[in-house]
Queue: 4 jobs
Job 1
Amino acid sequence: MIVEIIPCLSDNYSYVIREKETNTISIVDPSEFEACDKILNKYKKLDFILNTHHHIDHVGANLKLKKKYNSKILGSNSDKDRIPGIDIFLIENQKQKIGNLEFEVIFIPGHTKGHIAFFFRKEKIAFTGDTLFSLGCGRIFEGTYKEMFNSLNKIKNLPLETKIYCGHEYTKSNLNFCLAYDPENIHLREKEIDIQKKLDSNEPTIPSTLSDEIKTNIFLRCGDPDIKYNLGLKDSSEIEVFSKLRDLKDAF
Ligand code: ZN
Ligand code: FE
């Protein structure tokens, strides 16, 4: 499985997945036709389009690509009326093949009601859309704090070596937020150097790994005593800490 990163719009990422044995080409969250097609032209085909959620910056190129390559579009069953051109309706925990690859559908509502992640267990790769970002999480547009919190915990339970491919390059501003409330975290300081290096050489900060995220992403660290203390929420539950952090980040 080879993952190719395609920067789209101002800060979106689409991902081309190549499976060589059966020459199956798929794309995750194609936002912009031209940028995606430039890469796909190399392969002259596109078998599958995978959408994490219905937002336009994740499905914008669905119909044009489907028309050009006769691709099949896969998305959440709960978004069947909102994902343009959808052919295959995915449900929670479903296993789905694309060529010789297999992914599991992880249902992670919160950012939207039908948000899903694609987890390739054998390859330990997850596409998390706008739910888990590197050092951050998505805004809660359609779901509840509780839903988003539970969704992040589902991702948190994947194998630690899992590579995280998310929907946006928000890492730098997420980093600044993490540093504001978790300044003593030594892993975060290390990550800061690594991120700056990548950004200075114009490289994506993606993928991250789940183990890195658990050590540095404040939204996955709601039980940490230092963070609770810094927020003045020493005796609060993790969900209360999470909700407070999400509110602070919305205004950051
Ligand atoms: Zn979105
Ligand atoms: Fe987005």
Job 2
Amino acid sequence: MLQVNLAEDIYYLGFNDRRTHLFENIWPIPHGVSYNSYLIVDEKIALVDTVERAFIDDYLDAIEEIIGDREVDYLIINHMEPDHSGALKAIVHRYPNITLVGNKKTFGFVESYYMKPENIHMVHDDHVLDLGKHKLQFQMIPMVHWPETMVTFEETNQILFSGDAFGSYGTMDGGIFDDEINLDFYEVEVMRYFTNIVGKYCPHTQRAIKKLAGLDIKMIAATHGPIWRSDLNWILKRYNKWSSYDLDQGVVIVYGSMYGNTKKMAETIARQIAVRGIKNIRVYDASKTHSSYIINDIFKYKGFIVGSAAYNNAMFPNVETLLTTIEHMAPKDHLLGIFGNYSWNGGGVKNLKTFAEKIKWDMVYEPIEEKGNMKVQTQEELIKLADAMADKLLEMPAPEKI
Ligand code: FEO
């Protein structure tokens, strides 16, 4: 394995996964993902997080290539999710005298997933671990993305080992540092990683950003995706915008339709919103596009309009799946419109109303429901819904460019 240094004696040990289709067995990763671990070689040797278990053999070999017969003294556990702790047990077997470094919430996870740890070192905010030339300081950032998550700040070179925070989907295709790659490729992948994985925990992310602002950080090394060393603001501004629900002028329109009648209603709305001058309009068929991508645009745009055909006296199942995901993530401050279609008993709009009550977004117009093909009167109502959404969106200030 070609060695990649973040600084003298600090190594990148990342592995690219181009085989897995679904991250967490939920989220599509057509461009793969990387699992990044880091090795610091000093008077004491420390690993920062490990990798997914599929890469254990190559990971152990890569460590040995660098340190030979020396022992690893510490395993810093910033995050226990198995995509990063997958090689923990193998590391403990290979280096039985190793000390696991974590916080008061970490070791319960170690025990429930792997084993009762023998040698542990409990850390807290501002705690410093001295490796020799390199001093490691710890800060807790709970719920970014699990309760035990923390970051490790290497004070000598001012590198923040940030865990999931500031990570991205997408493999490292040769380039590893932000100045080695065209970031256009990562624009969507970084945001999808954020919205899909961390999106539920925006308030916690905001707290973490404020807390870490006190550190003089020169490099951010996350557990997925590029290492940020040239333009830290690229990633920091985006995380700040997304986690503060700073939404742009635009609308996401999603529908579930079997025979095209609900789709026609969606397209009528979309056309009228465009006529009113709104340019960011994304229309999705919930049966075709995975929630991962739709959620991403919901975190981007202020407006959300959802339509559902009735199905077995309920909502269309693919729309229901999306709305359940939205309810779990509970993004804030959206404008909402709902519509639907039925053939006999209904069930689509009825359940959309329940969603609207739970999510508590600002309803711009009353729910609209059609029976069968769209009639002129319903079309007029849909245009009123579109106008009501456009009116609100046009009141928004122009978005700040990032
Ligand atoms: Fe990349 Fe929360 O694990």
Job 3
Amino acid sequence: MNRNIKELISQMTLEEKAGMCSGLDFWHLKGVERLGIPSVMVSDGPHGLRKQDEKADHLGINDSIKAVCFPPAVLSACSFDRDLMYEFGDAIGREAQANDVSVVLGPAVNIKRSPLCGRNFEYYSEDPYLAGETAAAFINGVQAHHVGTSIKHFAANNQEFNRMSASSDADERTLREIYFPAFETAVKKAKPYTVMCSYNRINGTFASENPWLLTDVLRDEWGFKGYVMSDWGAVNERVPGLMAGLELEMPSSGGVYDQEIIAAVKDGSLNEAVLDQAVERILNIVFEYTDHREEQEFTLEADHALAKKIAAESMVLLKNDSVLPLKETEKVVFIGEFAKKPRFQGGGSSHINSFRVSSALDAVSGNVNITYAKGFPANDDIYDETLAKEALEAAKAADKVVIFAGLPDSFESEGYDRTHMRLPECQNRLIEDILAVQSEVIIVLHNGSPVEMPWLTGVKGLLEAYLGGQAVGEAVTDILFGKTCPCGKLAESMPYKLSDNPSYLSFGDGENVKYQEGIFVGYRYYDAKEMPVAFPFGYGLSYTSFAYGNLQIDKTEIGEKDTVTVSVDVTNTGGVEGKEIVQLYLSDLTGVCRRPLRELKGYEKVSLMPGETKTVHFHLDYRSFAWYNAKLKDWYAASGSYEILIGASSRDMRLSEKVHITAQKQLPLMIHMNTTFGELLADNRTADYVKRFKTQLEETFGASSSDNKKDDGDVAISDAMNTAMITCMPLRNVVSYGMCGKKELLDMIEEMNGQ
Ligand code: BGC
């Protein structure tokens, strides 16, 4: 429908316009009946619909409608599958249309800085490329139905402690390279209708009133066209927020902040045009939805089946010493209450009221060879001697044991962070006890974030089910029995212990959280430190095997405008049909700047029959190779060599090839008396100016200078030391050493800067 929204706004009173900029209640925007502006609803998710009607609260205490709980982000990201994420989003979009929900509050793309963050289960990855691609696919799926998404929480909301006030203090390069790209990719590739700003401050300024974040970066640089809403209660000062680019306050301060907006327009401190623009942005999205209402029918059953498919294609097989898949004829005992009562989602605002939950025991109910022993409770840390004894007896009698371990609800949730990375003690103890009487032990983990695994070397099988959504039991047993060939890979590194994590010394600080590890988050850190991890980013096993070959790169000399196509052949060399996630990493060999050893810049998932070969393609551009230079205020890849690596995980590179970049962009150079010779000699804009001093300095201090030389050949200043001294010497020293007058040097500096 063709609407003249500007015309509509011109008919609104100041009060109506201010009112449009805050919610009607917890879940609705206001409407203006006399002008035909409808009141629309937003709802949490995003791994299902959490539509609440009566007595709304946002922390999941009041029930929402019965819906399908799909796998939370922690698991679905492990699919590394854009098509699957689109299909997931498409289902959410259909459900939202059918339930008259105009915007789904998600996806949540914050980076997993530490395994301790209580909301890690809602977030995709430690890697910004994977998080961005996954989010973009999901958003495109939802919005295909004209239902909006609200990508959240923008930005740098990486811990729960003091989340409403703490400041995430990070340098610009870190924000641009690690904490922003998932948002940037999604905004550019999927145009989310809305963005939800986070509660926290960034370098001291609340996200909800940060003009650099909400306007300069989000709109002016990335081209965001929708509206920004606050996280629930994230408004600090309303008028500065509106001016910074926060259009919608949620939920509603009962008119308090609307009055502030009205007063500010009246006293002239807020330009009414800013308000009009905010209203226009909100109404564009409101009508985008209401003008495209679809008659949608969906069945809970069909979406349950999709939830199972997503879970099964995402779970990660971490260890398999010839113990899996299980055979129907084997006597197997399932131990641990999670087999009966799986933990399949996390607590807080994303909590879905599942219409059904399938446990692993439900899923194998027809198989007489499977028995069950509770062993330990799902939601407590109590070692019960009777339960343990019963479990040990059952373990001894069985051919194989599957222990369903995991984190109880109380261990991780929105609202607070974990304080350690351990499983409940009762579980670790029972696992060790069982290992003493039975060697064929498989662990299935239900957790929203990595756990320490003291028993890792003793167990033969390990399946990371994470939080699997309501069809978790079916997905797990399909993998255990080989009906599904496992094909997920880790979207995060699993360190051996908490103190290995790069944010260990600053995570969870209360007021100012120093992101001192900078860009070295997750595998970027573990790889740089050559630190062993329990399981690396991108890792996951299969029941079949894959061979990589025939790496082709269409050009090895690359300019700033070029796109490079990389292709590689993958062959299923095993006996069953399977899917492989092929990963492309880039390594900067120029040495111009300190960078991670390698970074993920492409992935493709490919399905192969035994013996089959397919070629996968990747496309890289200049930005793929670049890092963010805060002085240049831009992305920069220096001229020089780079390595393209094709791997099966971040620590399993199979093929590589070097390419060479020739960049036009040059780093800005502001020369002053203390600029070093090293910088000036390395730059072709200045090298010629200072070469003569270099020669003079070498003659004066070098190994071959007459003062320095001794008869026995021994020297006080070696050539190496001389070179190092000159490299680090500031320009002003040529005056100190009488090689140049001060005026002459200042003129030269002015001339170089003029270049
Ligand atoms: C959460 C958001 C959520 C909102 C509405 C907030 O507390 O941080 O993720 O969408 O509540 O429930």
Job 4
Amino acid sequence: MAYRTTNPANGKVLESFDNISDADLAARLDELDRGFRTDWPLRPIAERSRIIAKAAQIIRGEMTRLAEIISRDMGKLVSHAVGELTLSAAILDYYADTAEQFLEPKELPDAPGAKLHALPLGIILAVEPWNFPFFQLARVAGPQLMVGNVIVAKHASNVPQCALAFEDVLRRAGVPQGAYANVFASTDQVSAIIDDLRVRGVTLTGSEKAGAIVAERAARNLKKSVLELGGSDPLIVLEDAPFEATVLNAMVGKMNNAGQSCVATKRMIVVGKERGEKFLEAMKSAMGSLKAGDPLDPSTTLAPVSSEGALKGLLDQIDAAKSAGAEIALGGKRIDRPGSFLEPTIITNIASDNPVYRQEIFGPVLSFYVVPDEAAAIALANDVPFGLGSSVFTADLERGERLALQIESGMTFVNNPTWSTPQMPFGGVKNSGYGRELSQLGFGEFVNWKLVAISKAGALPPGFDKAG
Ligand code: NAP
């Protein structure tokens, strides 16, 4: 059975689920199609808003229970799970509050009589990853359900309980079966869903490999896709960045969710040799002081990574980095206790021909670089296939903004690591994908911006004074 909860903190298999049968999948799609044609988008916006706001309220009211489900599915510290749930509820509230304004038909002042109406497209497929199992679903469900689209959601196979819990929250809030369906689908079934004529768009958050496969399938079917893929976010530290605040921010950027975030700080790039040494010592001390333990115990500060497979992948990358001449300044080994725990790790002396130089390392591993000046920092920041988030630390905010514009990424934060709010668009460039989630931009990704142009009865189009 592909869909399974294996607690990463102790390796125990807690629950398994069968894949959905083809017949049940067909029935769910029929139900969504019916829901789209006869129910969900036809309801008044205020009613949809009430339902989505109610889902946010349920999440807030059941925070502890839901945080434990997240933690058992994928190993997150329970405090981090509470943070994720808080953000998920805020996203749902944001779209419940703003949809009416976003959906307001827009007059086109330069085209008298013409208006743009935001109409839903139909069934949208969401393929989502395990690392923020509620947030990822909320950032699709909030905007798309408020637009009036209906959703078939295929969550990652290691977070089935989160997938079910999120669907249950929506259902209890009043989202009908014809508007949201979680399906435990195989990859072949995902392809079949994309091929289905009634499915009008696909959004995937995950790896480059899965993104390319799903987007190719969507393209063959002439369907729009949005891809939120991997990243190797640089955190640039300029000469004038305040020392302690920068270290604290770098720790948040690196260690949130045990480093398993697309926008985690993956590469720290410090300008100046002396400051480089000081920052390296500070990061070694801060990362080295984290304590591995049960993620459900609030005193634990280091969570396991999501699975044995993920741990093995990280150990392989660390070995490959070492074999190619890099040094392991901190950690680098499995922690000797049950569960998939990796020592917080810092890799230095990574040459540009080292395989990890251009790879994403998805865990509690920091690639640390020291460069002579600002220009070298920007060149290094941009010398990867990814372009998701990034950050620059400096006391000079104008310089920070100037450098932000030189970094090839979808998002740059000055004096913070990359973070996310409902109001800020989220997404990348290069191999990190295309399209945006969150904010008004995310709301508009699967919308038919329908032009309706009205002329007086009997009028000819401008420029034609007679027919023909
Ligand atoms: P993944 O293997 O690509 O999995 C993501 C989702 O895609 C899962 O639901 C997975 O299902 C599904 N999937 C995988 N192969 C598929 C295929 N051939 N056809 C259809 N669906 C397929 O990603 P991951 O390695 O677990 O997740 C981590 C990656 O996601 C990292 O690269 C990370 O940076 C990226 N990420 C990006 C963002 C962002 O917003 N840009 C956010 C979070 C994570 P199964 O679980 O059943 O394989």
